[in-house]
């Protein structure tokens, strides 16, 4: 949500403003700005700056001065921010003696996340009532909730989704993906903290009927870690009940707020079209509430994993043993997507490898990356990322 606004002042100086993270994690975040080196005047150096802040309608604009050449780690000059509070900030930098100042940058509008524990009071961790087994891989968990805003006389001003999972998640509202992250909320030590993410969900939310859906995978929470070491299967390291926890906040044009938390009114099952409002979920099961999280809920302090590009195979050939080898030509970390055709009931196993040996793939380094797949024509491994150079299909 953070942007880098720029200004164009008479001498083509530019100034940029950023925050350490958007949405902000702390009630008093740290600020930074920088200049565009392509248009900066030669030998121009900052000697001071002004930070102007606006904290909503009717609140007086304030200008704060910093008499320092430092452009990073500027202490927050205003009052402590509240949870989910929007703040507008812009910067103007001053050069050395006889050097010009920049014009004001564009406004940056950012907002805080859920800072206080009380912000999560109505939000429950939910999971399937079905016994998923302690020593077995977990099936994907589909969660959904119907809700009706009935806002024909008002408009949706904004919507925010705050979400984390005991595992990995994917979120949809009315059939549209909300997040652009991959393998979210990422690897973490669940005993000490739970990282949650914030998304702008304004676009997919409708003024009348809605549905929100969350897909949960075992991930690092309950999946197999480290492969097999000394005959130990490192599965369910943090727990064997995968689930999700989220809060959808919708702000209407009349300034009223509608909160849709994860709770016992949600349903769980597996079926196509599960995150659309028209979907019939009468045969879905009620979810079960999990014990409250004991670790701290915090915003991530690093960039998320995102899909950067799609790669096409360099070569597809058949090995001596009859396996089909798909060679991408270089090593990378990513998810496989494959479309096949054949007799019904045919088993297909995908194996990732980095080395060819005697015309066959060598699978010793990635010990436990086999993906058994049955009854599919199109496979997209959304929650599985592997380092791969070659991909083979076959027994």
UniProtKB/TrEMBL annotation:
Domain of life: Eukaryota
Alpha-L-rhamnosidase concanavalin-like domain mapped to chain residues: 321-368
Domain Bacterial alpha-L-rhamnosidase N-terminal: 155-268
Protein name as it appears in the record: Alpha-L-rhamnosidase
């Amino acid at each position: 949500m953070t942007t880098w606004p720029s200004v164009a002042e008479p001498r083509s100086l530019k100034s940029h403003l950023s925050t350490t993270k958007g949405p902000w994690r702390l009630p008093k975040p740290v600020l930074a700005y920088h200049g565009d080196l392509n248009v900066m005047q030669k030998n121009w150096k900052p000697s001071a700056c002004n930070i102007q802040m606006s904290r909503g309608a009717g609140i007086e604009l304030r200008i704060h001065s910093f008499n320092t050449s430092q452009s990073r780690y500027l202490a927050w000059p205003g009052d402590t921010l509240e949870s989910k509070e929007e703040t507008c900030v812009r910067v103007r930098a001053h050069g050395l003696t006889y050097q010009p100042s920049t014009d004001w940058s564009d406004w940056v509008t950012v907002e805080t996340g859920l800072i206080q524990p009380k912000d999560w009071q109505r939000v429950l961790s939910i999971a399937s009532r079905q016994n998923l087994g302690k020593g077995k891989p977990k099936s994907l968990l589909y969660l959904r909730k119907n809700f009706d805003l009935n806002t024909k006389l008002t408009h949706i001003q904004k919507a925010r989704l705050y979400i984390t999972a005991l595992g990995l998640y994917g979120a949809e509202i009315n059939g549209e993906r909300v997040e652009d992250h991959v393998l979210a909320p990422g690897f973490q030590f669940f005993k000490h903290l739970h990282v949650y993410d914030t998304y702008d969900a304004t676009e997919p939310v409708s003024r009348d009927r809605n549905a929100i859906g969350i897909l949960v995978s075992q991930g690092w929470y309950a999946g197999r870690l480290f492969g097999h070491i000394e005959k130990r299967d490192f599965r369910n390291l943090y727990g064997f009940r995968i689930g999700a926890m989220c809060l959808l906040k919708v702000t209407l044009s009349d300034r009223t707020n509608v909160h849709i938390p994860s709770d016992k009114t949600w349903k769980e099952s597996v079926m196509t079209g599960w995150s659309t409002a028209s979907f019939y979920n009468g045969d879905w099961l009620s979810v079960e509430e999990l014990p409250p999280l004991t670790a701290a809920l915090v915003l991530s302090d690093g960039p998320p994993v995102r899909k950067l590009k799609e790669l096409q195979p360099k070569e597809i050939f058949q090995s001596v043993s009859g396996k089909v080898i798909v060679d991408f030509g270089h090593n990378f970390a990513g998810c496989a997507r494959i479309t096949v055709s054949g007799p019904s009931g045919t088993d297909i196993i995908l194996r990732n490898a980095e080395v060819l040996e005697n015309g066959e793939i060598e699978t010793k380094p990635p010990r436990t990356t086999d993906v058994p797949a049955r009854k599919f024509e199109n496979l997209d491994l959304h929650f599985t990322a592997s380092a791969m150079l070659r991909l083979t299909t076959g027994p």
